[in-house]
Amino acid sequence: MTDTPRLRLGTRQSPLAMAQAHEARDRLCRAHGWDVHAVELVPVIASGDRIQERPLAEIGGKALWTKELDAWLVEGRIDAAVHSMKDVETLRPAEIAIGAILPRADVADVLVGAASIRGIPQGARVGTSAPRRAAQMLHHRPDCTIVGIRGNVATRLAKLQAGEADVTLLAAAGLDRLGEHGVGTRLDPEEWLPAPSQGAIGLECRSGDARTRELLAAIDHAESRWRVEAERGLLASLEGTCHSPVAALSWIEGETIGLRAAIFAEDGSERFEGTITLRAGDTDGAERLAEDLLARASTNVTRLFGG
Length: 307
Ligand SMILES: NCc1[nH]cc(CCC(=O)O)c1CC(=O)O
Prior knowledge:
Layout (H helix, E strand, L loop, with lengths): L6 E5 L3 H18 L6 E5 L3 H4 L5 H4 L3 H12 L5 E5 L11 E6 L7 E4 L12 E3 L3 H10 L4 E3 L5 H9 L5 E5 H6 L7 E2 L14 E6 L3 H8 L4 H17 L7 E8 L2 E9 L6 E9 L4 H13 L2 H4 L5
Parallel strand pairs: 1-2, 1-3, 6-7, 6-8
Antiparallel strand pairs: 3-10, 4-10, 5-8, 5-9, 11-12, 12-13
Helix pairs in contact: 9-10
This protein binds the ligand NCc1[nH]cc(CCC(=O)O)c1CC(=O)O.
The ligand NCc1[nH]cc(CCC(=O)O)c1CC(=O)O binds next to β8 and α7.
């Protein structure tokens, strides 16, 4: 056996990112009959992890999660990069392609600190830096106050413990991957729509790297990919940024995909929702839903979209 890895897989270094990288590595090794050393995990520090004090939307958005890994990929220092698809911008460099979407985990959000949305104490401080979670909470609970909390999952739970907020919202997928089962209350995704691509892990590679594309294709999960592509198509058509409160849920129905989405005013005072059925692989359909939502929304909401 040679010690030369067959694939160098770049990842962020947070505990959640590392758990996702391990899952990707395990799936690659299983699919190709490799020994664990065949995939070398290459931790790369992302600016998003370095700058923790300010909200992501203020300091440069989702690109802060990907730009270092993108550079390493394009420079050939890694063969593939693993990402939470929720954190990956819809507009990607032409040199980079999504090689695989892993079978999707639970898409739901989890409420920590109260048993239900209604059960949150009057006037509670809700710790979140996500515009979607903030707007959604204010829509249901206008009495609450939003306080920004950032950091990785453990940091956010610690900040809650320390009393920086009364309740917080986290992705079930992230908690599950960290082995934090039984934390908080899972919110039914049909009632509390999650973020587009929540719970989906993607592996990117160089568009022109046929060998890696083939290796990644072996772990691509078609149904998860269709759903993620539909949700990303919607986000792209909305021209949403990290300031735009967008929620989406998709499901497979035989040969078609159902896609439901909602857009909000920042303060939750308005909410516009729509549903569409798409043929699998039809990315234009998401655009029709986006146009329909924007056509019905007030300028208070549409001003948050359009780049
Ligand atoms: N923005 C951070 C982030 N990006 C992806 C996840 C969770 C994992 C996933 O959605 O796959 C999280 C943490 C959270 O929202 O609680």
